[in-house]
Write a structure and sequence with these properties.
The protein has about 280 residues and is an alpha/beta fold. About 40% of the residues lie in helices and about 15% in strands. It contains 9 helices and 12 strands. Helix 4 links the parallel strand 4 and strand 5. Helix 1 runs parallel beside helix 3, helix 3 runs parallel beside helix 4 and helix 5 packs across helix 9. The chain is globular, with a radius of gyration of 19 Å.
Length: about 280
């Protein structure tokens, strides 16, 4: 089953599953207890909780809206999971971390720094999720994927940088970089992220724990722009829309996921960019 209010997605993304007997979609909001309860009527083994307001700038402009979605909504899902005895995986984010200061990467004990209400709400959701493990014995796990990209990602607004760059390159438009472009990101292809999330959900060993996922390789936004543009379009720097929430360097230490889940990324950044560009081309045909 899947519940989504489609505020950050599209029914187009699930069109291929709509006629499958094993798939059920409910359009609804996790703040609506009645609608949320419809999901739990039938037996389920696990809930993958990815619902959130993910727009950093919107969280700065409307912190209350983000709190209602990301904290109150998470509480509602946890309460349903507790009532029905269902394991919950909480999708957090690398945005909760402070910048990486060395080449070893950020592990799960690295200092956190909620530089936006979005990050703060994710940290709150993490604490709630783990509290249900300790207080009620409910199996829960928190995952912190680093920057995920690939097919079906939004190509406008606060979509993923790879998708936005790829779309603009295909349209012959210059690639716009916020700030000086020296900020780095650990970019993980969506299939690798999905594999990680499923393994974390199925594993009993990681219950009550926090697990990172990333490639262990970071790239500056300037370097990324050059990889995507291929010299076909220009590159320009524009004022940052939320410089106060920028994290200068994000590099994942994924050794815990490798050790506990036998997981590792398989798709290189170069291959992932090619796949993303090919998908955007196909989606436009």
């Amino acid at each position: 089953k899947r519940q989504d209010d489609l505020s950050n997605g599209s029914s187009f993304n699930i069109a291929e599953f709509q006629n499958k007997s094993t798939f059920k979609f409910i359009k609804g909001d996790i703040k609506d207890i009645t609608t949320l309860g419809k999901i739990f009527v039938d037996h389920m083994d696990i809930v993958y909780h990815l619902a959130a307001e993910i727009n950093v700038q919107k969280s700065i402009d409307l912190p209350g809206y983000t709190f209602e979605n990301d904290v109150i909504g998470t509480f509602n899902v946890l309460e349903m999971c507790r009532k029905y005895g269902v394991k919950m995986l909480f999708m957090s984010t690398c945005m909760v971390y402070d910048r990486c200061s060395d080449n070893k990467g950020i592990n799960e004990t690295h200092p956190t720094k909620p530089a936006s209400p979005y990050a703060a709400c994710k940290l709150s959701g993490e604490a709630l999720t783990l509290s249900y493990y300790h207080a009620y014995g409910l199996p829960t796990v928190v995952v912190r994927p680093f920057n995920t990209y690939g097919p079906y990602q939004k190509t406008t607004g606060e979509g993923g940088v790879v998708a936005i760059f790829s779309k603009r390159m295909l349209e012959g438009k210059s690639l716009q970089i916020y700030g000086d472009g020296s900020q780095t990101r650990d970019l993980m292809y969506v299939e690798d992220c999905a594999d990680f999330v499923i393994k974390a959900g199925e594993s009993k060993e990681v219950n009550g724990d926090i697990i990172n996922a990333g490639t262990g390789r970071d790239v500056s936004i300037n370097e990324l722009a050059n990889m995507v543009s291929r010299g076909k379009v220009g590159i320009e720097h524009v004022p940052h829309i939320h410089p106060q929430s920028e994290i200068a360097r994000l590099l994942c230490d994924n050794s815990k996921a490798k050790r506990m889940l036998n997981w590792q990324p398989r798709v290189s950044l170069e291959e992932g960019i090619e796949r993303t560009i090919d998908w955007i081309k196909g989606a436009e045909d």
